[in-house]
Structure formats: C-alpha cells, structure tokens
Write a structure and sequence with these properties.
Layout: H1 6-24, H2 28-42, H3 46-49, E1 53-55, H4 67-75, E2 79-85, E3 91-95, E4 102-105, E5 113-116, E6 131-134, E7 138-139, E8 145-146, H5 152-163, E9 168-172, E10 193-196, E11 199-202
Parallel strand pairs: 1-2, 1-6, 6-9, 9-10
Antiparallel strand pairs: 2-3, 4-5, 7-8, 10-11
Helix pairs in contact: 2-4
C-alpha cells in the first residue's frame, strides 16, 4: 500500500544507499558490457521501436549505460530529447545531435552531467514524447520506481499527467535492481515497463 510519512522516506533512503553501493562495485568493463546488452533489449520493446520522439537521458558513472541506445534511436530516425537540469531541479529539454552535441555541466556539488548543448525547448517539450525513458535505482513487481530522490522526474511525471500526455514510461536498470517491493508514496506513479540487460518486463497496460 502506498503511504506518506517519515517511514516511507527513511525506507527509500536506506534502499538507495544499498543500491548505490552495489553499483559502485561495477567496473568500467561491466558497465560497457551491460550497456550494449541494454540497447539490444530496449529495441525489442515495440513502443520504443516505433517511437518518433523519445525523451531519454545520458547515463553517468555506474548507471546502466544509455549512450549506445541514444545512438541507435537517432540512427533509425527517432528524435531524441535529453534533459537539462534547472536550478530548481525541474528539467528543460534539448535535442540530441550525436556525441559531439553533449557538454559536461556540474550543478553545484552534484555529479557532472552530460547535457545537450543546443537550443532549449522548454520543460513542456517532454509532453511530445511517445516514450519517456526514466533513470532509477530499482523497480518492483507493481512497476513502482525508486528514483535518486532529487524530484526532477516526479515533476516530469506530474507535467505529463497535468497536460494529458500518455507516453510509455520505461525505466532502465540492471537485472538485480528488479526487486520485490519498493517503498511507495501517494504521489508515486508506476512505469509501464523495465528494460534490463537480460530482457523486458511489462507491468501495466498503456493508458
């Protein structure tokens, strides 16, 4: 059952710590190997294979790698939107034009992010996406996603709901991050599918 309050928040923080520690043990070779497999599996998802516009993100550090997938989507003609972190943790968007179109940006004391260097399209640009790829740390059997806690994608999901947009919501994870239960709160929304290096799992029908 979803609930608010300090218990859910503290449970989320504890699970985040454990999952981030597991990722930190991956080598650069591990990440590269999983990235190639993740791109192959993602393209097996019909919604992604047929999408004209995909809102994605550039993985950093030991996150499940997205760059091979970004290039594969662009090569088949999809328009790929990438996030730009704003000072209030909301997200603006820009179009991916290949690896050379990215610039490294450090936001305060946070990890440096790779962001699109071109024209800013505005926070509402995400509402045109057929598929939104979400970063995360885990997903459970209900499709509930555990994010990093910054709230950026909570705002994206709220914006999609507010504008009546219904893209496929897909989270990209390692196989070990599909877990039995993620602490959930009233504002949390399930994703439609998870892609891992070993395959695709669906959770609920598209609305």
């Amino acid at each position: 059952m979803s609930h608010n309050g300090p218990s859910a928040e503290s449970d989320k923080r504890a699970l985040r710590r454990d999952l981030i520690a597991m990722r930190s043990r991956l080598t650069a070779d591990d990440v590269r190997e999983y990235e190639a497999a993740l791109a192959e599996r993602a393209e097996e998802l019909p919604e992604l294979a047929g999408a004209r516009t995909v809102a994605a993100y550039v993985s950093v550090g030991s996150e499940p790698g997205t760059r091979a997938l970004l290039d594969a989507l662009r090569a088949r003609g999809a328009r790929v939107l990438l996030p730009v972190l704003l000072p209030d943790n909301d997200l603006d968007w820009g179009e991916y034009g290949g690896p050379d179109s990215l610039t490294r940006v450090r936001h305060g004391g946070k990890m440096a992010l790779l962001e699109p260097a071109g024209v800013r399209l505005g926070p509402d640009a995400v509402t045109a996406a057929d598929v939104v790829l979400l970063p995360g740390l885990a997903v459970d059997a209900r499709g509930m996603r555990l994010g990093r806690g910054g709230g950026s994608y909570d705002r994206v999901l709220a914006r999609l709901e507010r504008t009546g947009a219904h893209p496929a919501l897909v989270v990209l994870l390692y196989d070990t991050e599909v877990v039995e239960r993620v602490p959930a709160q009233a504002h949390d929304r399930p994703v439609h599918a998870v892609v891992t290096p070993s395959g695709v799992r669906r959770f609920c029908a598209r609305m």
